[in-house]
Amino acid sequence: MHSFEVTFATGETTLVEGADAYQPEGPLTTFFATGSSRQTIDSWSVRVASYRTADIVSVRRFVDLRRVDTHLSAVA
User: Which of 52, 67, 75 is nearest to 2 (CA)?
Assistant: First the structure.
């Protein structure tokens, strides 16, 4: 299972569980569950959570709640 830790400009963090990927969609950054056999976001993906992109400072991916060493670029 994948999870993402989202850090906001306020210093608050939230854990988005069950998401495999994320992408900016206009003013929002949306996290998706893509399914076990697919690696891309497509019409079958399910939206898990959305946050205002301007409020996000960083996003970190976790696998089985262990942080993945490759750091993902900040969205904002």
Answer: 67
